[in-house]
Amino acid sequence: MPVQAHTSQPRGDRTLLAVGVAWFLAYVVARWVLEQPELPRALRLGAALLPVPLFAAFLVRFVRSLRGADELERRIHLEALAIAFPLTILLLQTLGLLERAVGLKFEDWSYGHVWAYLPLFYFIGLVVSRRRYA
Amino acid sequence: MRNRLRVLRAERGWSQAELAERLGVSRQTVNAIETEKYDPSLPLAFALARLFGQPIESIFEPA
């Protein structure tokens, strides 16, 4: 009798990937719409909120995927978070200090761009943790 | 924690994938336990003990 769900869930992973791609595309569309200052405010507002429901769907799928994973896979994700979170703190701290030291241009290194690094940090955490248990 | 999982599995002629299937975990998990990189949870340790028909302490021992 299996004690828990198996990690291999190709169908679930494909759905997760599809929702993730949809979320990213919604963000790209939103950015494009918000670059058009002549568009009505309501449309711009709608575009800004467009990624939210897709992100919610992604989150639900991601949590389901994790709950269906076996105990080692869940540990790997936990360790990935344990790596990504301090890396995020380090990035924010460094940006804050650099801002005071030399000033940072919004277009280059503002806090508005920090979120884009978070998936990267999580991915780094996953790679490090997977190598540990490989 | 040291364990005799590899020996017990070999005695039965099971591959890591077969054992993983019987336990409902991934092959990576079985490999990580065998190479002693990962200590299983208590429920998984009990499942292993049941599967091999041996008490937990005869499969696992403190390093």
How many domain modules of chain B?
Answer: 1
Helicity range of chain B = 55-70%
The class by helix and strand makeup of chain A works out as mainly alpha
Report the strand count of chain A: 0
Count of DSSP strands of chain B: 2
The main β sheet of chain B shows up as: 2 strands, antiparallel
Description:
The complex is a heterodimer of chains A (134) and B (63). Chain A has six helices and no strands. By secondary structure, chain A is mainly alpha-helical. The radius of gyration of chain A is 19 Å and the shape is flat. The mean pLDDT of chain A is 86. Chain B is mostly helical and 63 residues long. Chain B has one domain (2-52): 434 Repressor (Amino-terminal Domain) (Orthogonal Bundle), CATH 1.10.260.40. Chain B is built from five helices and two strands, in the order βαααααβ. Chain B has helices at 5-12, 16-23, 27-34, 42-52, 56-59; strands at residues 2-3, 60-61. Chain B starts with a strand and ends with a strand. Classes of the chains: A mainly alpha (134), B mainly alpha (63). The A-B interface holds A 1-8, 70-73, 75, 132-134 and B 20-26, 28-29, 31-32, 37-38, 40-41, 43-44, 46-47.
